[in-house]
């Protein structure tokens, strides 16, 4: 998956769904990985429920993604572990 800049909940919901499908996971499987019910994953992906931050981090981790923040108009450069040590 390439780096995406998301500026609203709809973009986030679509990105999570896209990554789940890219990995070949069902909502049930993603829910198991993130400690959530499949119904909860479905509501988040469909935009009928806004997840708590802790839930968002659980989903991001379960999907093998990272969440980075940066200034508007500037792509954040996240150093790799190799760059730090």
UniProtKB/TrEMBL annotation:
PROSITE patterns in UniProt: HTH_CROC1
Coiled coil region boundaries: none
InterPro entries: Cro/C1-type_HTH, Lambda_DNA-bd_dom_sf
Organism: Plastorhodobacter daqingensis
Domain of life: Bacteria
Protein name (database record): Helix-turn-helix domain-containing protein
HTH cro/C1-type domain residues: 16-70
